[in-house]
């Protein structure tokens, strides 16, 4: 197992390298460059050229990439072209809010979806099954911006129960309760989508397992329905659930771009949009790198969890 | 099958047939060993006879049968049929020979395309080999359906509309469409109910007589094999243990495995229930890691030191046996 | 020997979109302590459904709608789920056809063995484990101490069936239902398992309902036999009488259609023409009518009942051919009752 993990990490290195090359090329192919966005519109061509030269943007793309890579290997992600702050510092400031938002959304979504999925499977074709399945389709298909604007209209501007956006009240004390109030609406939006998706997988995976011979064996032993469902059936239906979780984990980093925009949540999503509009190459590269790492890590974690959930899966 | 065997030319000869499946491990899929599904199997099949192949699961009987029609590519050995070595010809050449070699499977349902009508399914091989026009094929379908006992108005039905026994009749009909010389029957009645089994076995027997067919009949049910076979090959862990006429196998088995296999069958007579039964211990070893020496020595009640060291050769003229201590010599 | 189980004219129905489908109809048999009855018949004859009906293990849409199942004077047909839970695995346990899929792949052998023991026998965790190892040894599993912590996929089919047997017998049930326990196994392994079941039966005096389609297994194991066809018992008697003097045309046809290794060389098998009628459109009269060589006009319209005839042992048949013998038997027994 340990050997397998080491091998997977070694394979991840060339993959990451490829990802950075591709990203760098794509970003450079996009029209415009940071200098256009940061200097005064009345600047002369000579001034522009001088700024470009100072930033190294007049060099060929591969030289720029090489410089970036060398710095990266020294642990330096560079400076933002638009704010002149170190990228690491910017990233740090934005990762926290996003992980908080998405983490809470994932947990809330799963806590609601997994039991509901089990109940739907146990009571297939009952009214509760129809209602939950209906809601899950709604959750999957409604766009986040639409649902986001909807809940803002109802709960924030009409009912005034929650703030319309941001993470803390401006000038407020930044207390836990304040943050919690700000979290409710965006979590509601995100958890609807996450939960809707999960319900369907749990339901179908449970249905599959509930028809298996070994559950009849368990019942023939005189076990209670609770034990049959939660000990014998649930563990067997974990594989598809783990797969979905593995796909969801990268959302922790990049899943809330639209929602963060709608709720003005100061996270990575908002940062991504800002960096794109200001052609802030170094920040974008850092965000991409972080996202790629998360995906690779999530895949590895998924594979490890498979082996934990199902003793028939062994990596050796 | 009235002439002595050595005066008839065999229809098909299997010589030292091997089929190994590599066991792969690691990132670069290094081969770390082989599952020896079929390990050095040789036998001849004579025109008009039925060669039964019996053995327990994992003995390689199905792999052998599938190799004969090149559904598996043999690892080594020769399969001589009409002067050609089936084990070593191209798939294109094999395609031409497929008209003479057909196979019937255990589960006819999974081998029938569920979206095609039976009439089309049956006509398919004729049209694929460009052996007939549409009208001719249609006529032929009617004819064959009658032969296997299916009313021809069933032509327009889909596979799921038939019962298990009828599906196996369709499987047989499909194999007969090209007028093959040899049909491999891979557990054709194992999935059927007893009363239906008898129908299919009788049908196969009648067809053999009227169409002069040769069968290789693979099954784990000894009763069915005895009923239909002229000669029987007993296999264990990829190797032939014994090969003899049906009568010799049942009345005068020489290999201890054959004897134990026959003995393990429950007899449908309650008055015999207290007979002295030979029950052997243990499971069939894994073909990925077969025992050294004679593959049967781990379960053989008569195993001696030599059996653990040296694999016995398959010897004999008409009654072949691979054992250091075959039964008649043991008793002598 | 006292009466343990009395199944009386049960009817099992499945509710489907197209209305109820009856898959078992008027099935009756009884069983004494330590006795083995074989339910024999082809697929779809209702032998498995009968056993699942006794255990209340039918799919959600299936239930026993008529008749009674008396087990130690309790009517299981009317038992609640809570009552059944106390009986299942404790008084009545069951083993199934597919040893490869009947054990939970993600739980260890020990885990699956001990949960029943702890539930019904109220053993502590360590006591249960010790007892489970003992059970594994009893069913002939080598290295029981090691195997108990393994997962099922490490075991062969024969070994898994032994585990199933250990599991079923661990709470010392009065009745064991074995649904085709050896059908999926190789012959040499089947012989081992049958041998084991015989040994354990002798030791524990457990009554067995053995479901099989193999008359060889019946001859080997049964005390008495109920031959089933299309959801009904068509003939019931003790094993010797059944094989020596089979009566019902279906039983006769079944016996003649099996190619057996002791058959003479050139004997042609007699096959039963046609196939089993589907549960959706059962014939009104005798269900064997269109396959029976002796079918008469009245068989089409009239339903034969399962009735006793005079024989060495109790012997009942569902066929009009034996009507006279059935009447004789009735008369004789009516006289007996009057005189006593």
From TrEMBL, chain A:
It comes from the Bacteria. GO terms for cellular component: plasma membrane. GO terms for biological process: transmembrane transport. Pfam families: BPD_transp_1, BPD_transp_1_N. The keyword Heme does not apply. Belongs to the binding-protein-dependent transport system permease family. PANTHER family: DIPEPTIDE TRANSPORT SYSTEM PERMEASE PROTEIN DPPB-RELATED (PTHR43163). It is found in: Cell membrane. The chain crosses the membrane at residues 9-30, 99-119, 131-156, 183-202, 238-258, 285-309. This is Peptide/nickel transport system permease protein. Keywords: Cell membrane, Membrane, Transmembrane, Transmembrane helix, Transport. Residues 95-302 form the ABC transmembrane type-1 domain.
UniProtKB/TrEMBL annotation, chain B:
Gene3D superfamilies: P-loop containing nucleotide triphosphate hydrolases. GO terms for molecular function: ATP binding; ATP hydrolysis activity. CDD domains: ABC_NikE_OppD_transporters. Keywords: ATP-binding, Nucleotide-binding, Transport. Coiled coil: none annotated. Residues 12-262 form the ABC transporter domain. GO terms for biological process: peptide transport; transmembrane transport. PANTHER family: TRANSPORT ATP-BINDING PROTEIN. Belongs to the ABC transporter superfamily. This is Oligopeptide transport system ATP-binding protein. It comes from Sporolactobacillus nakayamae.
Automatic annotation (TrEMBL), chain C:
It comes from Sporolactobacillus nakayamae. Keywords: ATP-binding, Cell membrane, Membrane, Nucleotide-binding, Transport. Coiled coil: none annotated. GO terms for biological process: peptide transport. This is Peptide/nickel transport system ATP-binding protein. Belongs to the ABC transporter superfamily. InterPro entries: AAA+_ATPase (IPR003593), ABC_Ni/Peptide_Import (IPR050388), ABC_transporter-like_ATP-bd (IPR003439), ABC_transporter-like_CS (IPR017871), Oligopep_ABC_C (IPR013563), P-loop_NTPase (IPR027417). It is found in: Cell membrane.
């Amino acid at each position: 197992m340990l050997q397998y993990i080491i091998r997977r990490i070694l394979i991840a290195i060339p993959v990451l390298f490829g990802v950075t090359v591709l990203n760098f090329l794509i970003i450079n192919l996009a029209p415009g460059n940071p200098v256009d966005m940061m200097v005064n519109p009345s600047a002369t061509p000579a001034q522009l050229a001088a700024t470009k030269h100072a930033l190294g943007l007049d060099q060929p793309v591969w030289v720029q990439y090489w410089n970036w890579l060398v710095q990266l290997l020294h642990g330096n992600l560079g400076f933002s072209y638009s704010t002149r702050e170190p990228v690491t510092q910017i990233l740090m400031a934005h990762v926290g809010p996003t992980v908080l938002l998405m983490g809470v959304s994932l947990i809330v979504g799963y806590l609601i979806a997994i039991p509901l999925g089990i109940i739907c499977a146990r009571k297939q074709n009952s009214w509760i099954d129809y209602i939950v399945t209906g809601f899950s389709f709604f959750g999957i298909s409604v766009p986040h911006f639409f649902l986001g604007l909807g809940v803002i209209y109802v709960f924030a501007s009409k009912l005034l129960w929650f703030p319309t956006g941001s993470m803390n009240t401006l000038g407020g004390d930044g207390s836990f309760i304040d943050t919690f109030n700000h979290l409710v609406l965006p979590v509601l939006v995100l958890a609807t989508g996450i939960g809707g998706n999960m319900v369907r997988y749990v339901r179908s995976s449970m249905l599959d397992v509930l028809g298996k011979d070994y559950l009849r064996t368990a019942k023939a032993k005189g076990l209670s329905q609770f034990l049959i469902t939660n000990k014998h059936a649930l563990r067997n239906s974990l594989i598809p659930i783990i797969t979905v979780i593995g796909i969801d984990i990268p959302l922790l980093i990049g899943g809330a771009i639209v929602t963060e925009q709608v709720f003005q949540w100061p996270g990575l999503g908002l940062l991504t949009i800002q960096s794109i509009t200001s052609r802030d190459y170094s920040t974008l590269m850092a965000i991409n790198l972080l996202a790629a790492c998360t995906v690779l890590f999530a895949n590895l974690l998924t594979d490890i969890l498979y082996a934990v959930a199902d003793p028939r899966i062994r990596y050796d | 099958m009235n002439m002595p065997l050595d005066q008839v030319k065999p229809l098909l000869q299997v010589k030292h047939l091997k089929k190994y499946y590599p066991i792969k491990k690691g990132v670069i899929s290094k081969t770390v060993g082989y599952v020896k599904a079929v390990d050095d199997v040789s036998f001849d099949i004579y025109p008009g006879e039925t060669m039964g192949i019996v053995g327990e699961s994992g003995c390689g009987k199905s792999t052998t049968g599938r190799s004969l029609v090149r559904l598996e590519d043999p690892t080594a050995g020769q399969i001589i049929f009409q002067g050609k070595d089936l084990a070593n010809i191209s798939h294109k050449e094999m395609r031409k020979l497929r008209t003479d070699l057909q196979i019937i499977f255990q589960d006819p349902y999974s081998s029938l395309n569920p979206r095609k009508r039976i009439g089309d399914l049956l006509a398919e091989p004729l049209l694929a080999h460009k052996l007939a026009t549409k009208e001719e094929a249609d006529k032929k379908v009617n004819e064959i359906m009658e032969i296997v006992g299916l009313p021809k108005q069933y032509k327009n039905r889909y596979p799921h509309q038939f019962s298990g026994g009828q599906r196996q009749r369709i499987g047989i009909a499909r194999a007969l469409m090209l007028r093959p010389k040899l049909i491999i029957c891979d557990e054709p009645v194992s999935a059927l109910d007893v009363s239906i089994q008898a129908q299919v076995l009788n049908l196969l027997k009648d067809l053999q007589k009227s169409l002069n067919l040769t069968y290789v009949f693979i099954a784990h049910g000894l009763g069915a094999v005895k009923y239909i076979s002229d000669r029987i090959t007993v296999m264990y862990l990829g190797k032939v243990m014994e090969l003899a006429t049906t009568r010799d196998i049942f009345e005068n088995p020489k290999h201890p495995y054959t004897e134990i296999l026959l003995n393990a069958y429950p007899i449908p007579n309650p008055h015999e229930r207290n007979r002295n039964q030979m029950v052997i211990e243990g499971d069939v070893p894994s073909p990925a890691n077969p025992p050294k020496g004679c593959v049967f020595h781990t379960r053989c009640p008569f195993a001696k030191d030599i059996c653990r060291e040296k694999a016995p050769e398959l010897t004999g003229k008409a009654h072949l046996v691979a054992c250091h201590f075959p039964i008649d010599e043991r008793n002598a | 020997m006292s009466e343990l189980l009395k199944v009386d004219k049960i009817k099992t129905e499945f509710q489907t979109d197209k209305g109820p489908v009856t898959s078992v109809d008027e099935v009756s048999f009884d069983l004494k302590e330590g006795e083995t009855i074989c339910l024999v018949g082809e697929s779809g004859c209702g032998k498995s459904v009968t056993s699942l009906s006794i255990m209340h293990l039918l799919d959600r849409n299936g239930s026993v709608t008529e008749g009674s199942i008396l087990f130690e004077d309790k009517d299981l047909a009317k038992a609640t789920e809570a009552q059944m839970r106390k009986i299942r695995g404790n008084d009545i346990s069951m083993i199934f056809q597919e040893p490869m899929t009947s054990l939970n792949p993600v739980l260890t052998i020990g885990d699956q063995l001990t949960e029943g023991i702890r539930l019904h026998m109220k053993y502590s965790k360590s006591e249960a484990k010790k007892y489970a190892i003992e059970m594994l040894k009893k069913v002939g599993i080598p290295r029981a101490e090691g195997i108990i912590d393994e997962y099922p996929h490490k075991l062969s089919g024969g070994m898994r069936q032994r585990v199933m047997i250990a599991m079923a017998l661990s709470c010392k049930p009065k009745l064991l239902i074995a649904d085709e326990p050896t059908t999926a196994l190789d012959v040499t392994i089947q012989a081992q398992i049958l041998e084991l079941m015989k040994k354990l039966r002798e030791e524990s005096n457990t009554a067995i309902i053995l479901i099989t389609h193999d008359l060889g297994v019946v001859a080997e194991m049964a005390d008495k036999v109920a031959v089933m066809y299309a959801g009904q018992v068509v003939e019931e008697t003790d094993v010797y009488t059944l094989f020596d003097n089979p009566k019902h045309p279906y039983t006769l046809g079944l016996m003649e259609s099996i190619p057996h290794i002791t058959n003479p060389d050139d004997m042609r098998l007699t096959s039963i023409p046609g196939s089993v009628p589907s549960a959706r459109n059962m014939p009104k009269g005798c269900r064997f009518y269109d396959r029976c060589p002796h079918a008469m006009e009245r068989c089409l319209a009239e339903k034969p009942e399962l009735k006793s005839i005079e024989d060495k042992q109790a012997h009942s048949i569902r066929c009009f051919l034996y009507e006279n013998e059935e009447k004789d038997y009735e008369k004789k027994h009516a006289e007996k009752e009057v005189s006593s």
